[in-house]
């Protein structure tokens, strides 16, 4: 199996080939997801909600992230592994570097993901200048849920949309090599994707990003939480976990997912 690297993802963007991303938190689902052809495994701090039963992602610790990332990395043979930097683990550039070091050295992550815009630019530069690959995350950033006042679409107002575009450019400039865009209008996601050189991965961001990500338990319809409207239950369609994973990969590659009903205007 040929390993997926950031170079592979850049080439896929250049060819207009969709990148398939899925969250993973353990060895067994990692094996199945890779067999289905998933390109990037995101060890998301969504594990706080779907694995730990927390109300939000805020209680997740760096140790939790290292533990789950290591479970994924131990059996992974092909995918690029991205690990979330949890809430309050990247308040300063030096703290972020310490956290990223743990996620990469003890966890085996290939890249770390940081939520937030302009205030994270300095941190992203600090990490990327020290050989830590970074995925930025804009739009709905769940670690800011108490500031945002709920899980709702971001960037609808012209001012917020312009700020998001500026933040995306600044994060790319600071060295970010990938961007996750969560819960933003499809037209805004299309504009960001067209203007950035780095791969843009959408979730609730319409059909025109370079790739798609879903929370594994949402796409299997087994989450303890309400399944978001931008997700789809592939297990209900297919009847088995391997078939559901294969159907997700195929639907993203063939641009059938996300459809209009999974997008926001
Ligand atoms: O934590 C997570 O799973 C994420 C995805 C929803 C993008 O950040």
Structure, explained:
With 265 residues, the protein is of the alpha/beta class. The chain has one domain: Phosphoenolpyruvate-binding domains (TIM Barrel). Helix content is 42%, strand content 14%. The chain contains 12 helices and 8 strands. Strands 1-2-3-4-5-6-7-8 form an 8-stranded parallel barrel, surrounded by 7 helices. α2 crosses α12, α4 packs parallel to α5 and α5 packs across α6. The longest helix is centred in the middle third of the chain and has 16 residues. The chain is globular and about 45 Å long. It starts with 5 loop residues before the first helix and ends in a 12-residue tail after the last helix. 52% of the residues are buried. The mean pLDDT is 98. It binds 3-methyl-2-oxobutanoic acid. The site of 3-methyl-2-oxobutanoic acid (KIV) has 11 residues, from β6.
């Amino acid at each position: 199996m040929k390993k997926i690297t950031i170079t592979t993802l850049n080439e896929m963007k250049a060819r207009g080939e969709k990148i398939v991303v899925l969250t993973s938190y353990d060895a067994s689902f990692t094996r199945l997801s890779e067999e289905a052809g998933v390109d990037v495994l995101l060890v998301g701090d969504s594990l706080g909600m779907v694995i730990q039963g927390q109300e939000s992602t805020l209680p997740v610790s760096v140790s939790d992230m290292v533990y789950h990332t290591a479970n994924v990395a131990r059996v992974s043979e092909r995918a690029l592994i991205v690990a979330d930097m949890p809430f309050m683990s990247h308040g300063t550039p030096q703290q972020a570097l310490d956290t990223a070091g743990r996620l990469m050295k003890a966890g085996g992550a290939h890249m770390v993901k940081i939520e937030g815009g302009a205030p994270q630019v300095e941190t992203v530069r600090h990490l990327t200048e020290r050989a830590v690959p970074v995925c930025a995350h804009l739009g709905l950033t769940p670690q800011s849920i108490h500031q945002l006042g709920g899980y709702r679409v971001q960037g609808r107002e012209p001012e917020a949309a312009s700020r998001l575009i500026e933040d995306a450019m600044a994060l790319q400039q600071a060295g970010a090599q990938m961007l996750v865009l969560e819960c933003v209008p499809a037209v805004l996601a299309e504009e960001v994707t067209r203007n950035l050189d780095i791969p843009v991965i959408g979730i609730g961001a319409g059909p025109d990003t370079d790739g798609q990500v879903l929370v594994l338990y949402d796409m299997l319809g087994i989450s303890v939480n309400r399944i978001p409207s931008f997700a789809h239950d592939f297990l209900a369609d297919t009847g088995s976990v391997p078939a559901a994973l294969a159907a997700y990969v195929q639907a993203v590659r063939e641009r059938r997912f996300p459809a209009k009903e999974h997008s926001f205007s």
